[in-house]
Amino acid sequence: MGSMQTGQTDAELIHRIRKGEHTLFACLVERYQSYVFTLVLRQMGNREDAEEVAQDVFVKAYRSLADFRGDARFSTWLYTIVKTSCATFLRRKRPVINSLDKVELAADTQNPAETRSRHDALNRAIRLLSPEDAQVLTLFYQGEQTLEEIGRIMGLETNTVKVRLHRARHRLREVIEKHYRRESIN
């Protein structure tokens, strides 16, 4: 029975959940867990806080599912919840986060065990970028959003998103070359 649910579109699942099949929300969580977690982790900088906020995002999404009008993709709607949840959490905790994140990054670039996959290195490189750059890259690659959708989320013109994405890619390349050149040679 579980496999039947996976073939359904988000809209079909949401329709059934609203009609009372609440257990189907687990399918949406499963579908968007890593997307939400990746977005949240970028903002938080540490797994513990990210896990707490990601859970909070799904709780809020479940509670406000009735507000989802379906005029944007579910992932786009979910992203707006991620944004407000992160902002709320960081407002309460801000001063510690930034300094911790820098120390953590400095430490783990010197730890060879931490460099085991290019994915980790890429994620760390993105965390070194400005929040705006990280946001546009994450939405484009992780969320697979179109430039139009990213524009709607970030409140920008599509053209501005294009320029930002181009600049963010350029900065990411610089960061990777500067911090990870040694690793890629080995």
UniProtKB/TrEMBL annotation:
<protein>
    <recommendedName>
        <fullName>RNA polymerase sigma factor</fullName>
    </recommendedName>
</protein>
<dbReference type="GO" id="GO:0006352">
    <property type="term" value="P:DNA-templated transcription initiation"/>
</dbReference>
<dbReference type="InterPro" id="IPR013249">
    <property type="entry name" value="RNA_pol_sigma70_r4_t2"/>
</dbReference>
<dbReference type="Pfam" id="PF04542">
    <property type="entry name" value="Sigma70_r2"/>
</dbReference>
<keyword id="KW-0805">Transcription regulation</keyword>
<dbReference type="InterPro" id="IPR000838">
    <property type="entry name" value="RNA_pol_sigma70_ECF_CS"/>
</dbReference>
<keyword id="KW-0238">DNA-binding</keyword>
<dbReference type="GO" id="GO:0016987">
    <property type="term" value="F:sigma factor activity"/>
</dbReference>
<keyword id="KW-0731">Sigma factor</keyword>
<dbReference type="InterPro" id="IPR014284">
    <property type="entry name" value="RNA_pol_sigma-70_dom"/>
</dbReference>
<dbReference type="GO" id="GO:0003677">
    <property type="term" value="F:DNA binding"/>
</dbReference>
<dbReference type="InterPro" id="IPR013324">
    <property type="entry name" value="RNA_pol_sigma_r3/r4-like"/>
</dbReference>
<dbReference type="InterPro" id="IPR036388">
    <property type="entry name" value="WH-like_DNA-bd_sf"/>
</dbReference>
<dbReference type="InterPro" id="IPR013325">
    <property type="entry name" value="RNA_pol_sigma_r2"/>
</dbReference>
<dbReference type="InterPro" id="IPR039425">
    <property type="entry name" value="RNA_pol_sigma-70-like"/>
</dbReference>
<feature type="domain" description="RNA polymerase sigma-70 region 2">
    <location>
        <begin position="28"/>
        <end position="94"/>
    </location>
</feature>
<feature type="domain" description="RNA polymerase sigma factor 70 region 4 type 2">
    <location>
        <begin position="120"/>
        <end position="172"/>
    </location>
</feature>
<comment type="similarity">
    <text>Belongs to the sigma-70 factor family. ECF subfamily.</text>
</comment>
<dbReference type="InterPro" id="IPR007627">
    <property type="entry name" value="RNA_pol_sigma70_r2"/>
</dbReference>
<dbReference type="Pfam" id="PF08281">
    <property type="entry name" value="Sigma70_r4_2"/>
</dbReference>
<keyword id="KW-0804">Transcription</keyword>
